Amino acid sequence: MSEEHHGHTHRLDWVDPTIREWDCTVVWSDAADPEAGIVLDRSAFFPGGGGQPPDLGVLLWQGVQTRIVDTRKGDDLFLIAAPGDPIPPVGMKVRGAIDDDRRSSLMRAHSGLHVLCGTVFRDYGALVTGGNMQPGEARMDFNLPEVPPGFKQSLEDTVNAEISADRKIISRIIPREDALAIPDLVRTQNAAPPMDGPVIRIVDIVGLDVQADGGTHVASTSQIGRIEVVKVESKGRQNRRVRIKIVN
User: For position 1, what pLDDT does the model report?
Assistant: First the structure.
């Protein structure tokens, strides 16, 4: 089985995050138990993880539409249909399609968080203690006890300068021993991505940030657009929450 599989599903979201429609086959479903989910042989639905929510979209088959509203991760990726929608049977050829505007906005936000993380780690040496994103906006928490004067505006200016530098963003899967040799691969303080498998997926913002990461990203920082640092909040003595918004 290739490194771009999860269970029976070939993960097109890892192969090419620009894919929005594709043909596939149902390899498991149970019409008597719709909440059990649907497993496809090929899927571009990002299942969620690392603060990035799962994709929404539809499966089209024989003139029928099944809305996909969530994903449950286990030995397989189980796509969850909207309540009451029909469930395609095993062996059915279907066409998958994801919500383009939502996915594209999440990709920009996720890449924006990586630029933010790389900038804060480089300039302040702070590790990430939490994060989350929604289309067009995101937040990241840092172990940053002291906030210097003018931090909010300085951070916004520096992050936007890195975005304007048009740095390439490269995702790749590499052997575990090669990944662990990368300095500061994990930038989270209290939780780490899965690191015990034979391979690890990394996202590299060339010249700024390299992290273990399973999400979807734009191809270069210029595709993020300008960000606004909306607010910097205190979350205890050690933690600062930085909220950002993609403004264009």
Answer: 40
Alpha-helical segments (H) within 60-173: 100-124, 151-164
With CA atoms as reference, report the closest residue to 52 among 8, 13, 9, 81: 13
CA distance 155 to 140: 13
Block means of pLDDT (10 residues each) for the chain, length 248 residues?
82 96 98 95 96 97 98 96 97 98 98 97 94 96 93 98 98 90 75 70 95 95 98 92 95
Cβ-contact 214, 197 below 8 angstroms: no
CA 52 – CA 233 distance, rounded (Å): 21
CATH 3.40.190.10 fits 103-246, yes or no: no
Report pLDDT for 77.
97
Q: What does the alpha-carbon distance between residue 85 and residue 21 come to, in Å, rounded to a whole number?
A: 20
Residue 191 is predicted with a pLDDT of 56
Domain ranges of the chain: 5-98, 103-246
Which amino acid type is present at position 164?
S
- Eight-state DSSP code of residue 183: T
Pairing of strands 57-61, 93-98: antiparallel
Count CB neighbours of 222 within 10 A. 13
The fold for domain 5-98 equals: Elongation Factor Tu (Ef-tu); domain 3 (2.40.30)
Cα distances (Å, whole numbers) of residue 19 to 150, 170, 181, 235: 41, 16, 32, 38
Evaluated on CA atoms 15, 20, 26, 29, the torsion sign reads positive
Q: Which helix (H) or strand (E) holds 177?
A: helix 176-180
- Distance, in Å, from the CA atom of 169 to the CA atom of 106, rounded to the nearest integer, reads 15
